[in-house]
Amino acid sequence: MFLQKLMLCLSTVCNVFYVIALNLTVRIMHFISPSLTKKHIIRMNEKTTMTQNPKFKYEDWGPTFNSFNFVKAASWHMWLSLGQEAFLEKEAPDSPVVTMDGKKTSIFQYLRGTLRRSIEFKQLVKDFSDVADFLVVYIAEAHSTDGWAFNNNYDIKHHRSLEDRLSAARILVQKEPLCPVVVDEINDVTAIKYGALPERLYVLQAGKVVYKGGVGPCGYSPLEVRSFLEKMN
């Protein structure tokens, strides 16, 4: 565990410097050539959901990499990730969550074998419901309207109470995720312990972390989870 924590701290420091450098680079590039900046940002995010979601066009999210809110949000997510306790092949933390009707429960209450969005995630639930139990944990909003906001996105502000979070999660439930949806407590305990901000996929088995996906959006890969579950099947 000590080695994993040490590597986490080192990678977090490197990533913070990367985010700051990226923001400064984008600002300079935008001043010199906005069109070149656009190509660079699109290429950088070509594997993320932002470029694949037909709801969004570049103008909705691309220019936000030129903002202080991008640095602030990314740095905050990385700071919280320093508290994570979920490491590959180690015991998974049974962190508390809240059901959609406001009752307190925990991650392990949903375990048979498996943990965390999108059409691809729905397909995973359909295809592997006989192999794994799926659970969506709705955590802090990554792109709140009063934070690192995208245009043409849901009007969700930073959650200041559990009811705020439950109200936001009800929007997700309307999309019929095909599996239980719970919300993180307002102190973000589950997001912290699992290093889940802004999004992350896990597979838990017998109380252990057997798959730990990368941090989203770049590391969020339902296809990788599909491959892993196929091997388990």
From TrEMBL:
GO biological process, one term: hormone biosynthetic process
Described purpose of this protein according to its UniProt entry: Responsible for the deiodination of T4 (3,5,3',5'-tetraiodothyronine).
UniProt keyword Oxidoreductase, yes or no: yes
GO molecular function per UniProt: thyroxine 5'-deiodinase activity
Pfam family, one: T4_deiodinase
Organism: Monopterus albus (Swamp eel)
UniProt similarity note: Belongs to the iodothyronine deiodinase family.
Name of the protein this chain belongs to: Iodothyronine deiodinase
InterPro entries reported in the protein's UniProt record: Iodothyronine_deiodinase
Gene3D superfamilies tied to this protein: Glutaredoxin (3.40.30.10)
Keyword tags: Oxidoreductase, Selenocysteine, Thyroid hormones biosynthesis
Reaction catalysis annotation: 3-iodo-L-thyronine + iodide + A + H(+) = 3,3'-diiodo-L-thyronine + AH2; 3,3',5'-triiodo-L-thyronine sulfate + iodide + A + H(+) = L-thyroxine sulfate + AH2; 3,3'-diiodothyronamine + iodide + A + H(+) = 3,3',5'-triiodothyronamine + AH2; 3,3'-diiodo-L-thyronine sulfate + iodide + A + H(+) = 3,3',5-triiodo-L-thyronine sulfate + AH2
Protein's UniProt keywords contain Cell wall biogenesis/degradation: no
Highest taxon of the lineage: Eukaryota
